[in-house]
Design brief:
Blueprint lengths: L13 H11 L5 H21 L11 H13 L7 H21 L27 H14 L2 H12 L3 H5 L6 E5 L2 E6 L8 E5 L1 H16 L15 H18 L9 H13 L4 H8 L4 H24 L18 H22 L4 H25 L1
Antiparallel strand pairs: 1-2, 2-3
Helix pairs in contact: 1-2, 1-4, 2-4, 5-6, 6-8, 6-10, 10-11, 10-12, 11-12, 13-14
Length: about 375
């Protein structure tokens, strides 16, 4: 079945814009070229509908042509995501700059300005809660099928789902005596890395190799079989996660990338250094990893507020011993220590005031009594 293609846009400016896109995307990926082309098409469709008299590059103006197109983007229903608007503005601005250079029309470079591009929304990672994480892992372990093992591998390595789809059959590499790592190929940011793994993650790779051996598709060097395209495989895995979440009563808007967020946040909480987490996740900029630090600082703030609201968490717990209670002066000392602890716990739980001051004075008296008892014990 042939793929449906849109007819070429019939506009006097289409050839000039097409040449600019071709010049810009010489060394870019096909997806980037399609993005430039679709943005140009969107702009020219707007021109044809609202300004049909514009047929030459010299006629283009910031107001009303460029500003009118931006207003159309913002007024679109359903509204475009901020990231989509940013991407289209950046693409069209690059095309205008290219046209200004090649057509010797410097005013085209000022049709869209840097300040026209809104700031990208600061989205923090969304790690799973402890309960969600436990439920998902338990269900994936119980199913022990292809999808379950894929998501367990994502959870214990911090890979992106697209990187997992590109893993080679021999991705598991020995890095030393009883030390192993998974080679993650070139991914979203055109970087590759080695992610250290434990025995559980090694077992997951062996399970996925077993499932690959059962697949009727011929061996192609990949750990996961593509029965079609990579996009189709990723769609099936996302559907699988949706089904698993529904079966255990979790929100069905959980996405595979939250496994990566959970892994990165877990590593920082465990005390791993910032630079190491940055390497593990394959980030090219420290700003990307700083978002995970923001999440852990949120956790720190929550724990701080909990400690302030329930001061008993700060009180030292009495030491318990399986031995029976001692007699004589030793037993008396133990009793006074236990009384001191109970009094201190109660004192910290009440607000500042006369009662708290009174308890502080009583605690000082108990300390003096304890000192005298210990002197008797020594004598």
């Amino acid at each position: 079945m042939k793929r449906w293609r849109r007819p070429p846009l019939q506009h006097p400016l289409a050839p000039a814009f097409a040449r600019a896109v071709e010049s810009l995307s010489t060394a870019l990926s096909p997806s980037s070229t399609r993005h430039y082309s679709s943005t140009v098409r969107n702009f020219l469709v707007y021109l044809a509908a609202d300004h049909p008299n514009v047929t030459r590059l010299e006629q283009l103006r910031r107001d009303p042509h460029a500003l009118g197109w931006m207003s159309r983007l913002r007024a679109q229903i359903p509204p475009l995501a901020t990231a989509t608007c940013i991407a289209r503005l950046i693409a069209l601005r690059a095309v205008f700059n290219e046209l200004a250079w090649t057509s010797k029309l410097p005013e085209l470079a000022h049709l869209l300005r840097r300040e026209d591009i809104p700031r990208s929304p600061q989205s923090l990672p969304r790690p799973l809660t402890a309960e969600q994480d436990q439920l998902l892992q338990q269900e994936c372990l119980r199913r022990n099928d292809l999808g379950g093992n894929v998501f367990l591998l994502l959870r214990h390595t911090g890979m992106r789902i697209s990187e997992c789809a590109d893993l080679s059959y021999d991705c598991l590499r020995s890095t030393g005596p009883d030390q192993w790592a998974i080679h993650v190929p070139l991914g979203k940011l055109k970087t590759e890395r080695m992610v250290p793994v434990d025995s559980f993650a090694r077992e997951l790779v062996h399970r996925l190799r077993f499932f690959r051996s059962l697949d009727p598709l011929p061996a192609d060097g990949r750990l996961l079989a593509w029965s079609g395209t990579k996009v189709g495989l990723l769609a099936r895995l996302r559907d699988y996660l949706h089904m698993v979440c529904y079966s255990v009563g979790l929100p069905t808007d959980i996405v595979p990338h939250q496994m990566r967020h959970t892994y990165g946040t877990e590593m920082l909480r465990a005390g791993m250094s910032f630079a190491t987490v940055m390497k593990l996740l394959g980030h090219t900029s420290p700003r990307m990893t700083m978002r995970y630090v923001d999440v852990t600082l949120t956790d720190l703030q929550r724990e701080f507020q909990l400690a302030r609201s329930k001061p008993r968490h700060l009180a030292p717990q009495p030491k318990t011993s399986p031995t029976p209670a001692r007699k004589g002066l030793d037993g008396l000392i133990d009793s006074v220590l236990a009384t001191q602890h109970a009094m201190e716990m109660f004192r910290r739980s009440i607000p500042n005031g006369p009662a708290r001051s009174c308890l502080s004075r009583l605690a000082n008296r108990l300390s003096k009594i304890l000192a005298v008892i210990r002197q008797l014990h020594t004598t």
